[in-house]
Fold each of these.
Amino acid sequence: MRKLVLIGAGAGAVVAAVALGFGALPLTSGSSGAQAPKTVADSTKAPLLARADTGKLLGPRQPIFFRHDIHAGQYKIQCQYCHYSVAVSAEPGIPSMQTCMGCHTVIAGSDSSHKVEIKKLRDAWAQKKPVEWVRIHYLARYAHFPHMRHIKALGPNACQTCHGDVARMPQIYKVNNVNNMGFCISCHLQRNVTRDCTACHY
């Protein structure tokens, strides 16, 4: 019985941390159904979409319909919360399932389509099977793009420079041709940064 109480307390702590940390869970008052004042996140509420509605969305279909517009847009989760290695590594890294399950152990989804996708994550976690995400952004092997330098130079909104406004994308797609040297050169010209060949080709 003591274990159940501890698990319940831990789950409550995660939900409280999400609500306080991201300020995105709407608060209701009493049984009247009246809502408290809207948070900033309410202004960017992501549209309801079932997986069946995704046929016309840009970008490849993923094994789990992960909504960046909900996580980064509606709930204001910073990119670096999930892509935690981006500020210290050349690669941004795919978030670990443990990161996802930090919230989704207790958050099951608000509608049937969300619940279906979160169940896929929970099942993969229970079976110890990694999710085989489809990679979207590639660089040629002879070009080096150290993410940590760009995050440091461009600040917290650095991701949008190359990847677009991810917080409004139901499904991620390639906004800019990041594998085209002209894209990189244009950015370096705008910011008066070195264009020496050895900066990227080493």
Note: Confidence is low (pLDDT under 50) at residues 1-43.
Amino acid sequence: MTELILIIVQVIAALGVVISVVYLGMQINQQNKITKAQFGHSLTQRQYDRFFNTTKDSEFSEFLAKDWAADDLTHTDRWRINHFVMMCLVDLFDVYDKVQEGFVDESHLNSRINALRLGVMKSDAGKGVWNYMKRNRSKEFNEWFEFEVYERELEVDPNQQKRTEGMNIIRE
């Protein structure tokens, strides 16, 4: 009789361990989803903050609207352009790494690479900053980036293209 009670207790204890492991797995899965959502939210908020600050800062908007290939740019303009491009690249590096680690959805990366593909990285300033910054990245990233920015053809909706043709914000 004592042996039967001991076996029943061991079975119950084993079931308790199995249930605890399953519950812990569910908690970890839920925490991963929450963490992923928080990363995604912070990346989206960071991008929205930049957009909002650009729209309310007319001086900065005028700077972004300049022809970045013009001969009459001041040293300050060139410095600002280089740092703006660096900021965009550092943001892209961060998002790329988070996508690779599975922390955020690829849509965060796509929105950033699509913006860079429009012309910032095709300017002389963009190419110069890229050639400097790419030393800090892996060969895999560099190949991905150069394909996405310099080789991939844009699949643009003709209606969207007509709406953006007159914009000077980003020039090739």
Note: The chain has one domain: 40-164.
Amino acid sequence: MYRESIRPLYAYVSKRVGGDAGLAEDLVQETWMRALDAWPRSGVPNEPLAWLLRVARNTLVSHFRTVRPTPMDPALLDLEDERFSPASPDTAAVVGWGLARLRRAHADVLEAFYFEGQTVSEIAAAMATSERAVEGRLRRARAKLKKKIERILKPPASTGRAATLETEHGRHTRTD
């Protein structure tokens, strides 16, 4: 069972951590430790890979709820850009951090789109709904995710213009 499931499980986790091999290995190991703890008591599930993927998702959510990612340039996270992909460890960490704070329905549609690479029509078929409904869900989920991750993004780089500051001791000019 391990040999059959390790590659898809590792691929699932690795995509969601932007290819950070060390973190992916730790989270996969934690997932398998949970299986080794639960399966002797409750039996091996009918769909072991599906069980492992669900536990891995929960493990990822727990990880991203406890770790605050490094702030990054907001230009690197244009969620509306069709080419955006959380493929680097930094962008995956920020997106994962945000997804861990969203409602499950929003997180699921964004995961299918960004991490599984599913098209709107594939998501619609899986959800048994229209493409237009999925587009609306994606738009709302992106807006929610953007709002969550704005808290950890760096402010845009300075323009280099002089800024005048008023203090109780008078006016001061500084250059950014």
Note: Helices lie at 2-16, 21-42, 48-66, 89-99, 104-115, 120-127, 131-149.
